[in-house]
TrEMBL record:
Alphabetical keyword list: Ammonia transport, Membrane, Transmembrane, Transmembrane helix, Transport
The keyword Membrane is annotated on this UniProt entry: yes
Protein name as it appears in the record: Ammonium transporter
Database matches in InterPro entries: Ammonium/urea_transptr, Ammonium_transpt, NH4_transpt_AmtB-like_dom, RhesusRHD
Gene3D superfamilies the record matches: Ammonium transporter AmtB like domains
Amino acid sequence: MTTFPPLPANLAFDEASPEWMNKGDNAWQLTAATLVGLQSVPGLVILYGSIVKKKWAVNSAFMALYAFAAVLICWMGWGYQMSFGDRLVPFLGKPDVAMDQKFLLRQAFGGVMFPNATMVYFQFVFAAITLILIAGALLGRMNFHAWMLFVPLWLTFSYTVGAFSIWSPNGWLYKKGLIDYSGGFVIHLSSGVAGYTAAYWVGPRATKDRERFPPNNILLMLAGAGMLWMGWTGFNGGDPYVASVDASLAVLNTHVCAATSLLTWLVLDIMFFSKPSVIGAVQGMITGLVCITPAAGVVQGWAAMLMGLMSGSIPWYTMMVLHKKISLFKHVDDTMAVFHTHAVAGSLGGILSGFFANPKLSRIFYKLPDWDKYIGLAYGIHNGRTSAGFRQMGIQLLGIAFIVCWNVFSTSIICLVIRMIIPLRLTDEQLSIGDDAIHGEEAYALWGDGEKYESKGNPTYSVDESSMPQKGEVQMV
């Protein structure tokens, strides 16, 4: 995600369309941000609510919806400035609000041709989806009240560190030249590692749920997955911060990699399990989208296809083979397999970015005055700049190590602190009942033939039993 040094603060902000603003760029940036927002609400809300057992549909969808709202308030209050504001330490910015019109109507950093308000909105949807991805590892057993505490704490003490370090012009990994076009490190690697770490501390689902956890609606799951895929147009297409040729290339590379990865995963499922799995195809789609994210605008189309082949096979192997052999994988209950789909695929994409990054495309994206940075190892060897290529690979590996270590540490501390206040895991009785015990609501509140729906825990939305049809009666609409 490209960033630039901040501009002076005394820019005009008292005009509806100031000279520095490009209406096309601003419109595209707002559109791209909204596409990313739709990946979460309703995309992942629908995906989570339909891919779990029926008794967990409401809770799973609501975890995503709550995170989206909570992150926005925290982001405006302090998160944005901690991620993109003035430096406090080399890996974190100073906490400050992002609500004053003098700030929001001013030109965003680096000479981009839209206001801070657009930038805050664009960066918010990335922060929100990161928390929602973490929720995928915790579905079906985390105490919702503990989740309510986890979201603002993790955003504050984990997400902002990765975002500032890698995307802020003042961040230490940004200055070293790490390639993370749109969040392979900041979003996907961090959510995969944090989700897996939190799953360890929260504990597993009920035994029955771990043994059998069928989706309650595969068609709705596909609808949510489709929103996730199409929304990635904004996810990667918005990161040049301009409606440019590089944005177009990034969008095309994104879809090429996702399609290749989906088909690769599908073929492997057929070869080894004889049946084409719909859920497997969705996993392959996700790993392709994740893998291309750190490289989308700096690699050529053939490289995007090769990355799709690897993102459809390597995470498949870790999930379908290694997961059953390694004791740590078997011990930790990662409901949506976010470690494989996001941590493994994100790391893979980060490494391949350092290998396939085309220096010409990097120069367009990063607006470099020279060719000294962001050259992939393959091009370094080809152009006689092998040391520069190896340097880039080393920086990519350093970024992976930093994100992994920080997220294991910060997520563990956050979970241990929350555990001192409130249990991380639901009670056995709540695990047995599901949504009705936690929210007093059920996803499929159907009745008839004398059966009545009774809300046990939410009197606000309880149903008037006298209005329900009794046995032998017909409901008139």
